[in-house]
């Protein structure tokens, strides 16, 4: 009769089998964590420093929110306010799971960890998709009036022509959208190359 402490030459001891099962269940959790959270403390610090971008976008959008600042396309300031708010939330929401991931990795129950990470992943992905769609909408509003926009108005009578847009507002939005597309492109390249090297 075999003792339960005897080692099976193929499966090993019960403690080894349990350890093997835990290791097999962890990679998908680690993959999800890696897809959502920042990989290092340095990334978190960079994200914290990048908070000035959505704050600046919000300030410009709120400052020029009155329709008379851009009668040719009043939605430009709305685009900045919404985009800045969601981007601010996205950065914070990326930082928080990074901090939580340190605790999740030491959690004894991988299923609870997995559920939490899945929820965070879905929320972050929804937020990212919204930002991409909203950037496209903002691009339509901004680029559609590019050839007709004017930055001059009647200062004597304080009269704003129908095709006027405040220069700081329009130029800031124009450059910000282009930089947003460049950032998305670089991020896609980073994830593609990162996954390529990880699969090797």
TrEMBL record:
The keyword Transmembrane is assigned to this record: yes
Signal peptide (residue range): none
InterPro entries assigned to the protein according to its UniProt record, in alphabetical order: TMEM272
Keyword Repeat: no
Transmembrane segment boundaries: 41-64, 76-99, 111-131, 136-153, 173-193
Keyword vocabulary terms for this entry: Membrane, Transmembrane, Transmembrane helix
Listed PANTHER family: SI:DKEY-19B23.12-RELATED, TRANSMEMBRANE PROTEIN 272
Protein name (database record): Uncharacterized protein
Source species: Adineta steineri
